[in-house]
Amino acid sequence: MSYSLKVGHLYGDLMNTYGDIGNILVLKHLAKEMGVELDDEVVSLDQPFDKDKYDIVIFGGGQDFEQSIISKDIQTKKTDLIDFIEDGGSMVAICGGYQLLGHYYIGANGEKLEGIGALDHYTEKQENHRFIGDVLIENQETGEKYRGFENHQGITFLGEGERPLGNVLEGYGNNGEDKTEGAIYKNVYCTYFHGPILARNNQIAKHVLMNALSRKYPDADLTTQKETSSFRNILKIKPNKKAFDIKVESFCYPRFDSLINV
Ligand SMILES: NC(=O)CC[C@H](N)C(=O)O
């Protein structure tokens, strides 16, 4: 049995601050280790989002100017993106991308940019201030700790059905008030973390890959895959048709020079 995954890099030509594109290199690297073929393509302005084509969507961060253009274009992709998310599609949305998945984002100049309301959060404006610096959070469900770098003026408040990616131990997070950072909804991971997040936090990359594989191959027995891949020392995977229970056994930090040739 061979496995393949397709990544849609949403507005990858416009939204890519602090090397967010590195998230795709990490997915490629880890997928290759697992024996899974993974390729990616950019889905940008004036292009339809084909919800049946992609297994994983990466939506990076960006400046207010790019966000104002995307805010309009993304309305044409809204229905398909919502269908993709509701159907359990995997997504990682960072900073500006995270903001536009919610109801709205108020830019630094006070302009209100419409999101698609796929997730129930909204993002207000800070007065002449940005949250900049390193962040450390802890996910309450897994106990995993994640590290990242944040730089945003928007302050985000979570809504119905969303759980935070983690509770803030150091740094600001979503809004500097309620100690939440990021959001998880179905198989969507949202965050303010650049870094890129998946390079600094391999556990999340593995969750994303396994969620995507279990959705695409619900009846597959990944035991063979597990035995032949270097994942066997890292993940304990209990196949259970709908979802795989993943336990991180050790932390592996891929070196960028080993990612470049993937
Ligand atoms: N790094 C980002 O993606 C920034 C997002 C947004 N422009 C803000 O300042 O809040």
TrEMBL record:
Name this polypeptide is given: Lipid II isoglutaminyl synthase (glutamine-hydrolyzing) subunit GatD
Alphabetized PROSITE patterns for the sequence: GATASE_COBBQ
Assembly description: Forms a heterodimer with MurT.
GO MF terms, alphabetically ordered: carbon-nitrogen ligase activity on lipid II; glutaminase activity; transferase activity
CDD domains: GATase1_CobQ (cd01750)
Source organism of this protein record: Lentilactobacillus kosonis
Domain CobB/CobQ-like glutamine amidotransferase: 6-201
Family affiliation: Belongs to the CobB/CobQ family. GatD subfamily.
GO terms under biological process: cell wall organization; cobalamin biosynthetic process; peptidoglycan biosynthetic process; regulation of cell shape
Catalytic activity annotation: L-glutamine + H2O = L-glutamate + NH4(+); beta-D-GlcNAc-(1->4)-Mur2Ac(oyl-L-Ala-gamma-D-Glu-L-Lys-D-Ala-D-Ala)-di-trans,octa-cis-undecaprenyl diphosphate + L-glutamine + ATP + H2O = beta-D-GlcNAc-(1->4)-Mur2Ac(oyl-L-Ala-D-isoglutaminyl-L-Lys-D-Ala-D-Ala)-di-trans,octa-cis-undecaprenyl diphosphate + L-glutamate + ADP + phosphate + H(+)
Gene3D superfamilies: 3.40.50.880
EC number: 6.3.5.13, 3.5.1.2
